[in-house]
Amino acid sequence: xxxxxxxxxxxxxxxxxxxxxxxxxxxxxxxxxxxxxxxxxxxxxxxxxxxxxxxxxxxxxxxxxxxxxxxxxxxxxxxxxxxxxxxxxxxxxxxxxxxxxxxxxxxxxxxxxxxxxxxxxxxxxxxxxxxxxxxxxxxxxxxxxxxxxxxxxxxxxxxxxxxxxxxxxxxxxxxxxxxxxxxxxxxxxxxxxxxxxxxxxxxxxxxxxxxxxxxxxxxxxxxxxxxxxxxxxxxxxxxxxxxxxxxxxxxxxxxxxxxxxxxxxxxxxxxxxxxxxxxxxxxxxxxxxxxxxxxxxxxxxxxxxxxxxxxxxxxxxxxxxxxxxxxxxxxxxxxxxxxxxxxxxxxxxxxxxxxxxxxxxxxxxxxxxxxxxxxxxxxxxxxxxxxxxxxxxxxxxxxxxxxxxxxxxxxxxxxxxxxxxxxxxxxxxxxxxxxxxxxxxxxxxxxxxxxxxxxxxxxxxxxxxxxxxxxxxxxxxxxxxxxxxxxxxxxxxxxxxxxxxxxxxxxxxxxxxxxxxxxxxxxxxxxxxxxxxxxxxxxxxxxxxxxxxxxxxxxxxxxxxxxxxxxxxxxxxxxxxxxxxxxxxxxxxxxxxxxxxxxxxxxxxxxxxxxxxxxxxxxxxxxxxxxxxxxxxxxxxxxxxxxxxxxxxxxxxxxxxxxxxxxxxxx
Length: 667
What we know:
This protein has 667 residues and is of the alpha/beta class. It folds into three domains: 3-81, no CATH class; 124-454 and 462-485, TIM Barrel (Alpha-Beta Barrel), CATH 3.20.20; 584-667, no CATH class. Helices cover 30% and strands 11% of the residues. It contains 19 helices and 20 strands. The chain has helices at 3-22, 69-74, 131-134, 148-153, 157-185, 214-227, 246-265, 271-274, 289-301, 305-310, 322-332, 340-345, 362-370, 390-393, 420-430, 513-531, 543-549, 567-573, 641-644; strands at residues 44-51, 55-64, 124-127, 190-192, 230-232, 278-281, 311-314, 336-339, 377-380, 411-414, 439-440, 476-478, 497-500, 507-510, 554-555, 558-559, 578-579, 582-583, 602-604, 659-661. The chain has an eight-stranded parallel β-sheet with strand order 5-4-3-10-9-8-7-6. It has a two-stranded antiparallel sheet with strand order 1-2. Strands 11-12 form a two-stranded parallel sheet. It is globular and about 95 Å long. Residues 18-85, 97-101, 510-516, 575-586, 594-616 and 636-667 have low confidence and may be disordered.
C-alpha cells in the first residue's frame, strides 16, 4: 500500500476507534481526533471530514504532524502546556423531513363591528388604473413610462431625450381627463393618480420641471372640480424621511416636491385643493423606532410649506402600527390614514385583529384631519382567500365584499386588484349609486373602441375620441369576477380533430393542425375522383403510425421489403444486407484524403480483429426503394497499404479498433 493511503487508513481507523470507545460522532465533543496509535514522527496527518458519525473520509492533502511545543516541554502534555484542542469538524446539516400536521392552517380570528355605513354619503374610489379603459384600443391609462436606456437612445438629452419623455407625460396627463369623465359617468368620484404620470421627473440626473404640462393638467383639474371628484397621490416605498442615509433623504424630499407640483398643477381651488393629499409610509425601522421617529421630525421640519400641507401618514403592514404613528401625527399636526387591512396584520398587542377594537381610536384619528380642515379618508382592502401568514395576507384580493365601519361621510379608497370593478361590486352589494349604472359586458365584444376588424369582418365606423372606452350607449363596462378576458377579443383555439386511421378504421386524434389539414385536403381530392367515376387510391398511413405500429403493407399480394435497420444499429451489429439475392460487402469506406501538404501518412490498425461496417455512398430518398440504389464496389482492405493509398503504415496493437491517423494526428 502506498505511504499516503496507509497514513490515511491509519487516521481513519483511529477516528473510528475513538468514536466507538467514547460514543461520540467521529471524535470528542470538540472534534479533536485522538492520536493513540500514532507517534509524532511516524505518519503524516490528514484532515478528516466527519459526516454525522456515519461517513469518515480524508480531506485535502496529507500534512506531516508536528508535536505540540508545550507537550515536549511538560512531558505528558497536561496542565498549562496542554495542546489547544482543534475546532470541531464541520458536519453536513441533516435535512429533516417536515412533520406532517394534520391540523388545517387557520388564521387568527377577527373581531369585526356589526355597523355598516349605509346609506353611504362619502366618495368611494380606486387607485391609478382602470381595467376597462386599459384594454381599449387605443388604451387609456396614466402610467406610460420607459427605461433610461430608451431615453438615451433617442439622442442628446436636451434635444431628443427630454422631448421623448415629455411626450409620454403629456399623453398620461391627457388620459387623466378621460379617466375623470369615465368615472363621472359611472358615479365613481375618487381617484388616486399614478406616481408614474411624469416618468423620471424626480430623478437626480434626468429630472425636469412640470411647467410644460400645466395646461393639460389644468384641464383635468377643472373637470375634477366641476364633478366634485377627489384626486390624491401616493409616493412610493423608497420615499422615506426616517432613513439614516443622507442620499435617501435628499431623494425623498425631491420626490415629495415632484408630487406636490403635480397636484398644484391641476389648478384646483378651495376644498378640492385641500383634499389633494400625498399619502406616505414611515418606511423602515433602521434598528430603533425611537431614533427613526427623531430623524423623521428633523427632516419633516425641513420640508416646504406646500409639502407639509399635503403630507399625510399611513400605517403599514410590516412595522408601523396605528399605535406607533398616532402620537407623532398629533405632535406634528399630520393627518393619519387608517388602513384596515394593514391594521389586521400589524397592530398593538393590546388589540385584536378586526374592525371592533380599532374603533376606540376613531375620534383621535378624525381629529388629525379636522384640525387641518381636510376631508378624512381611509383605506380598505381584504386578503386573498386562504391566506394565513402575514406575508400571504399582504396580497390584496381582487375584490372586497364588505364595507368597514367608517363614518358614512368620509372618503374610502378601495385597494383591490380589479380596481374600478371592486367599486362596482360594493355598489351592487349595498345598493350604492344604483350600481353606478354599469351593465355587464358582452363576452369578447366591444363597440366603443377602434379595434381593427377581424379577417372577413366589415370595417366599422371610427369611434369619436370623446366616446372612446365609455361602454357605448348601454354602459356595458362591468365584468364578473374572474372574467377579465371578456374585455379582449376571443382567442383562436386550435381544437384537436379526429381523423380516420385508414389502416384499421380506428379514429386517431391528431395534435397538429397541419396534419389534419393535409388529411382534409386528401379527402376532398378523393371525393372529386369518385365523382368522376374513378376509384380513389388508398392513402398511405402516416409516417408516425408506420413507425409506431410496425405496419407491414401488402400491396398486390407481395410483402413489402423489410425496412433497413437504423444506421446506428448497422454500425453496432455489423449487419450484412442482401439486396437482389446478392450479398453486399461490408468493408468500411476508404479514408478521406487530407487536404494538407502531401507527406507520409500513418494509420493504426488492429492486429486482432478488423471491424467491418455496411457501406453505401447514397441514402434512399423518399419514394425510392433500396433496390434502385446502385452501390459502388467495396474498397480494398486497409491492411493493404498499396491499395488503400497509404504509405509507411505503422501497425500497433489496440483493443479491436481500426483507426486511420494522418501525419499531423488527424483522425
